[in-house]
Amino acid sequence: MAGRITAIEAQKKNRERVNVFIDGQFAFGLALIDAAGLRVGQHLSDQEIKALQAADEQTRAYEFALDFLAYRPRSQAEVVCRLRDKGFLESTIEYVLRRLTQAGLIDDVEFARYWIENREQFKPRGTRALRYELREKGVAEDVIAELLQEIDPLESAYRAVAARLPRWRQLDPPRFRRKLANFLQQRGFSYEVIAEVWERVQAEEETSSPDDNEREDQEVWNR
């Protein structure tokens, strides 16, 4: 493949990349930034061409990783898996991970904290379910254990059912309890936590104040 560069042309579909021609034949594509030092008439050895192609793969892999991270934070394992799926070399993946870590763009502790906070805010889960999800994302067990200690399972479980309580309260107590228990079990809460939530709900039922009509009836009766 060694030879003299005869043309450097911008790609039609991606103006950030160029096609490099050697001795009149297309040789390889490069990111514009990686082709900055090239010129027509320059001679390239096989070793120089391999170095340019390796640099191009690193650039493409890094840009791909940035796009992947643009949607939401990712764990390191997610990034690695995605890059492997795209066929990038292990050496390239290691380069991308170092660069992303140095830039503060991947951090499994911060990712796990984001994941838990997001769940707590929008869709509370039990620690069992959260641990499973984070394991699936490749987060280390010690990181998971430390962050899960910051969660109050009872409060999480209660928030998970709070919006449904008014509707469930229209049911008879056995059905109400089954609805609550089944829902929380599906969210990964333990039987102990479910029992505590049920006790809290019952206590609220007992201490809830009567509505306005009931107050009026009581006032009339007291007269």
Description:
By secondary structure, the chain is an alpha+beta fold. Among the domains are: 1-44; 153-207. 61% of the residues lie in helices and 10% in strands. The chain has helices spanning 46-70, 76-85, 90-102, 108-122, 127-136, 141-148, 153-162, 165-168, 173-186, 191-207, 212-222, and strands at residues 3-10, 17-22, 25-31, 43-44. Strands 3-2-1-4 form a four-stranded antiparallel β-sheet, with helices on one face. It is rod-shaped and about 90 Å long. Mean pLDDT is 90; it is low at 212-223.
Order of helices and strands: EEEEHHHHHHHHHHH
Distance between the termini: 105 Å
Helix content: 55-70%
User: Order of strands in the sheet with the most strands?
Assistant: 3-2-1-4
Put simply, the count of helices is 11
Question: What percent strand?
Answer: 5-15%
What ranges have pLDDT less than 50 throughout 5 or more consecutive residues?
212-223
Please tally the β strands and state the result.
4
Biggest sheet layout: 4 strands, antiparallel
Which outline best applies?
rod-shaped
List keywords for this structure.
223 residues, alpha+beta, 4-stranded antiparallel beta sheet, 11 helices, 4 strands, disordered C terminus
Q: What's the SSE blueprint?
A:
Blueprint: E1 3-10, E2 17-22, E3 25-31, E4 43-44, H1 46-70, H2 76-85, H3 90-102, H4 108-122, H5 127-136, H6 141-148, H7 153-162, H8 165-168, H9 173-186, H10 191-207, H11 212-222
Antiparallel strand pairs: 1-2, 1-4, 2-3
Helix pairs in contact: 1-3, 4-6, 5-6, 7-10, 9-10
